[in-house]
Structures are given as structure tokens and as C-alpha cells.
């Protein structure tokens, strides 16, 4: 007999091993449909993972941070599959969840551009709608695994969603580099969340490089909790390029480099280049909110930032 304890402390008994997906179905069809992974004795696992001994088990859905990260990681896998179908000679390198979305890095004999993104995104949407299952075939060293979607195999850090039908709210946003290149996208649990994300932000959090990505996203989330619309630019681009680009679109920039991350603070500047110095993470959201934000720069700019009901 297998005893499974749920996160609320209740328990269930089963007379034979069962998968995380089957366990979710035993609780209810709604939970089984929403499940993207499981948490078995604190470890995240795929929905196909077999529970063969007594364990504490939780069902992970996109409504929690771990679940949304898994959805985004799987969207990166779908991007790789679309790239391989559209460009068979592509050399896929690596991809994962990143901030509010995902990325994939690759090499191709010609550089892709923004025009190419529309076709790649369309192929991704077709693949998602086809509802391919995503299966783990084997575990490799360094915690990565070989996953299969239809006839596409790819090594990736798991777990991944059980099928592509979960991927219903994503968009490709940027492409950068020459060789290799990276495509960046955003992904959410539903269309409403994606639409809300597309509302013009009040502030952009800019990271110096990949090493500050997690800290920059944590700062972004903290600013959002204060009631200020914020977005992080975690692209692998030169920080001067990112600052120049966003200075034309948002009233404030929060810049994060090695010193900011090490000290637990941020550097704040306006779209006109005014430097407001360093601020504690817990203070920056309240300070930004106190500025009024919506009248900064020009009237035309302010109108682009007008609330849209979210």
C-alpha cells in the first residue's frame, strides 16, 4: 500500500504505483487538466513521474511561480522545435525560462531578423494547438534530460509540461546577436495575463549581463508589488544599447550591475538622463509611485502610458 500525503496534511492510499498525473486525476478532473508538474518530497518532477513509495506530493499548476517557470521553459522547447522545422540546418544550443518569458540560442548560416519572428511564432502556435505530448526519454549528467515532442528530440533541464496544449499565451518579442543568435519571448498562463503584460510599463529594469538576471527580475517583481507597472530587459545586449532604446519609451530606468546586486540596491535614472542615485529595493517602488509617473517626459508619452483597465 502506498500512502500519499497532500500539502494540506490529508492523505490517500493506493494499492499500486501511479503517476503524478494519475494522482491529480484522483483528486479531480480540473486539477488533472491544470497540472504541469508535481512536487514529490519537495522535488519538482514531470507529470509522468511514477510514485512508487510513500511520499508527500503536491500538484503544480501555472498559477504558482514554479508552475509558470515550467510553462516558460517548455515554451523555449517549443521555440526550438519550430526553429528546427523551419530551418533544418539550425544548430540549437540552449534555452530556458528567463524573467517573464524564455529564450533560445542557436546558430544558422544566415542571421534571422524581426520579420522571421512572425513565421516562427505562427509555427509555434500551430504546434501548440496540435497538442503534442512532451515526454522525458532519459536523464543525462548535470540534471538535464532528453525530451521528445512528436519526432523532435532535445536535451533540456526539466521538468516540462505534459503536453503543448498548455501553451496558449505567448509571443516572440526580440532577436539579438549574429552568431550565435537569441530569440526572446514572453509566456503567461492565460491570454489576459499576456494582454496585461503588454500594457506599456512605467519603468524598465535593465541588467548589465546574464549574471544579474535573477536579481533584476526579483527587483521587477518588487516594484510591481508596489503598484508600478514594471518590466525587466534581461536580453544579452550591451547595457548602453538597452538604456538608449528604453529611454525613448519609459519615464524611468532602474539599472542593475554587479555592484547593485552585491549591495542589494538599484540605480535609478529618468528618461532624460537625470541620475537619482542608489536606492534600496524596498524603497524604489514607493519612490517611483510618489513621482506620479504619468506626466513625465511629454504629454504624448504620458498618453501612451495611460491605464488600460488592469
UniProtKB/TrEMBL annotation:
GO molecular function terms listed in the Swiss-Prot or TrEMBL record: ATP binding; metal ion binding; threonine-tRNA ligase activity; tRNA binding
Gene3D superfamilies: 3.10.20.30, Anticodon-binding domain, Threonyl-trna Synthetase, Chain A, domain 2
GO BP terms, alphabetized: threonyl-tRNA aminoacylation
Keywords: Aminoacyl-tRNA synthetase, ATP-binding, Cytoplasm, Ligase, Metal-binding, Nucleotide-binding, Protein biosynthesis, RNA-binding, tRNA-binding, Zinc
EC identifiers of the protein: 6.1.1.3
Group of enzyme by EC: ligase
One Gene Ontology term, aspect cellular component: cytosol
Domain named TGS: residues: 1-61
PANTHER family found in the cross-reference section: THREONINE--TRNA LIGASE, CHLOROPLASTIC_MITOCHONDRIAL 2, THREONINE-TRNA LIGASE
Protein name, as recorded: Threonine--tRNA ligase
Organism (species): Pseudomonas fluorescens
Gene that this sequence comes from: thrS_2
Amino acid at each position: 500500500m502506498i500512502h500519499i500525503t497532500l500539502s494540506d496534511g490529508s492523505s490517500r492510499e493506493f494499492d499500486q504505483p501511479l503517476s503524478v498525473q494519475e494522482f491529480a486525476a484522483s483528486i479531480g478532473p480540473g486539477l488533472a487538466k491544470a497540472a504541469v508538474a508535481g512536487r514529490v518530497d519537495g522535488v519538482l518532477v514531470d507529470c509522468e513521474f511514477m510514485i512508487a513509495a510513500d511520499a508527500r506530493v503536491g500538484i503544480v499548476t501555472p498559477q504558482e511561480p514554479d508552475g509558470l517557470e515550467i510553462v516558460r521553459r517548455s515554451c523555449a522547447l517549443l521555440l526550438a522545435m519550430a526553429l528546427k522545422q523551419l530551418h533544418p540546418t539550425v544548430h540549437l544550443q540552449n534555452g530556458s525560462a528567463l524573467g517573464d518569458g524564455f529564450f533560445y540560442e542557436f546558430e544558422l548560416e544566415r542571421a534571422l531578423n524581426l520579420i522571421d519572428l512572425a513565421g516562427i511564432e505562427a509555427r509555434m502556435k500551430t504546434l501548440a494547438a496540435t497538442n503534442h505530448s512532451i515526454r522525458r526519454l532519459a536523464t543525462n549528467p548535470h540534471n538535464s534530460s532528453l525530451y521528445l515532442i512528436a519526432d523532435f528530440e532535445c536535451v533540456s533541464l526539466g521538468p516540462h509540461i505534459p503536453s503543448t496544449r498548455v501553451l496558449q499565451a505567448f509571443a516572440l518579442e526580440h532577436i539579438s546577436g549574429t552568431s550565435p543568435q537569441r530569440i526572446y519571448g514572453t509566456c503567461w498562463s492565460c491570454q489576459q495575463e499576456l494582454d496585461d503584460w503588454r500594457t506599456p510599463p512605467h519603468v524598465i529594469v535593465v541588467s548589465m549581463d546574464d549574471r544579474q538576471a535573477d536579481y533584476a527580475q526579483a527587483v521587477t517583481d518588487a516594484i510591481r508589488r508596489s503598484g508600478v507597472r514594471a518590466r525587466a530587459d534581461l536580453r544579452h545586449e550591451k547595457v548602453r544599447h538597452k538604456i538608449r532604446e528604453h529611454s525613448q519609451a519609459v519615464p524611468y530606468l532602474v539599472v542593475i550591475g554587479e555592484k547593485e546586486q552585491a549591495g542589494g540596491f538599484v540605480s535609478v535614472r529618468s528618461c532624460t538622463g537625470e541620475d537619482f542615485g542608489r536606492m534600496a529595493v524596498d524603497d524604489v517602488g514607493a519612490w517611483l509611485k510618489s513621482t506620479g509617473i504619468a506626466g513625465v517626459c511629454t504629454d504624448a508619452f504620458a498618453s501612451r502610458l495611460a491605464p488600460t483597465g488592469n
